[in-house]
Amino acid sequence: MSEEKYIPKSKLGQWFDSRLPLLSLAHHLRDYPTPKNLNYWWTFGAILTFCLIAQIITGIVLAMHYVAHADLAFESVEHIMRDVNYGWLIRYFHANGSSMFFLAVYVHIFRGLYYGSYKSPREMIWIIGMLIYILMMATAFMGYVLPWGQMSFWAATVITSLFSAIPIVGDSIVGWLWGGYAVGSPTLTRFYSLHYLLPFLIFALVVLHIWALHIPGNTNPVGIDIKQPSKDTVPFSPYVAVKDLYALIIFLIITAGFVFFAPNILSHPDNYIKANQMVTPTHIVPEWYLLPFYAILRAVPDKLGGVVVMFASLFILMFLPWLDTSKVRSAVFRPLYKIFFWVLVIDVIVLGYMGAKPPEGLYLLIGRAATIYYFAHFILVMPILGFKEKTTPLPISISDPVLDSDTKTTNYR
Amino acid sequence: MIQKQLITGDNFVLKKLKIIIKILFIYPIIIVSANNSMAAEGLDLLKNKWSFEGLFGTFDRASLRRGYQVYNEVCSGCHSMKLLSYRNLSEKGGPEFSREDSKNIAASFEVIDGPNSEGEMFTRPGRLSDKFVKPYPNVQAAEAANGGAYPPDMSVLIKARKDGANYIYSILLGYEDPPEGFELDEGVYYNKYMPGHNIKMPNVLFDGLLDYADGTEATTQQMAKDITTFLTWASEPSLEARHKIGFKVILYLIILAFVVHLSLKKLWSRIESK
Question: How many CB atoms are closer than 10 A to CB A1?
Fold first, then answer.
């Protein structure tokens, strides 16, 4: 990036910065040139960073009171809710925080899809982002197991059993995951350990994600390259920082709505029944944010096939920068892609809905159709569209056309 | 259109924000409704107007106290509430018995303690710090005494059922004679609201079953209402604090959002008028 080199004013600052350039880093983060036309869909990066840190902090406090043992875990969670000062607040914030985290990450991913944020030169940002997303799902799944309710236990049983579909070594892998012949205390303790570890890996990847972002800089709704810094950019602080803060507060209002007034609405009542391996719940459903993939898993009649297709549905996203052949980044100038984008959004929501329903009759049929469309979008639509689509003309810069055509705004003063 | 979109104008920004907020709400609601329709296999539950519902919901203190009496005199014969302690009865947001009363309630139970210095277990009167005394020493004993069915612990029962309060209320009032042709197993009762209509628990509530300490007439409905209120508090002892703090937090955030939005507008006006 064409930023001028920062030299600290004080002698001490220069001494320190030449040995460890933390001051330069802080200066860079403050002055980081950001396109001035970013809309509110771009605030979710900051929101997600907040979510991760909030989850880590509440999680650390919860870990001080939680007991990872099959006989005690359920009661220890209720102990947190009843006997720990504001324990109910911390636990409900952590539980609903994960839902809000996923909401934000879905908005963030779909924003990337709409505005072509994954395209050259930002492929690394996208790939690291996808790794973060996959780790998030693993972390959330293991966190869901910790309260050791009925859904925890049976979700753990169903998901870990998937690995038994692997030929030859499948059963050994499942036994290794369980630490025994069934889901039990050993499974719980290793999930707990990993649930504590993975967020820090995610944090490290987030640092890389932001680092990779700061090399080419943000893309923008118009999707054209801009000079940095120029009249098209504003320094991150205070302009973008305050905007992110505003969006974060709105996001927190919604979060607080869930935490304080409907803390259990997004989870399943069965998880307040202590795990019992003798009683299978009528419907075993994962948390809502994993439902689209659950639907894909069940859409395939073969167990191994289902597992393969489910993982493929995740990993295919990593190849998106090369599957999309269009030269134009933003969907704003791609009339056809815009339509297909929204079809994909609806497709994923439909998948989520089918994931919550029992896999039978019409639900299964729609689930299968939606699964096929999901893959078709990435394998067929995106490559072909790049060649066939007639895009609308791009502006030369993000501020020039504004000044030319919309004099009202410029003379507003 | 496109040019318009380039401006980070206020109206445009607010419109976008509204869309984002809508999206943030829609997905979970779709999923929750999918779950709801899944649970709605049986009859529509009886709906009561509960004082603890809504944004400012609080518990009806008198109803909570009567509810404890119903638990103590009726339910506690079979159902444990192992997550509650006697001290909870005098805590804020609950039945709020005086500390003296809670002490007396605790002392009216025999608690097994020990081992003492001789290695013997002994019984002593309950204390505030003791958990509610269980009717059976273990699950097996409970099952043996109840025809093989374990009367579930009621500490978090309301949270463990869809629309828990209305569900428990409906079950308690849902006993009736089975319709003609309905095959009822031995030792099982017919309940309108139970999934499958088979329930191992007999109908326990009858008009005038007990004398309320506060003189309220103990009708079946009154008792069902009181015990449901009590069980809801038991599942969510922090409900009142949650509602109260939640209101303050959201009010604070709205004011903060307003202030930040003003400074945001002021800041960006420098850029837009350049």
Answer: 11
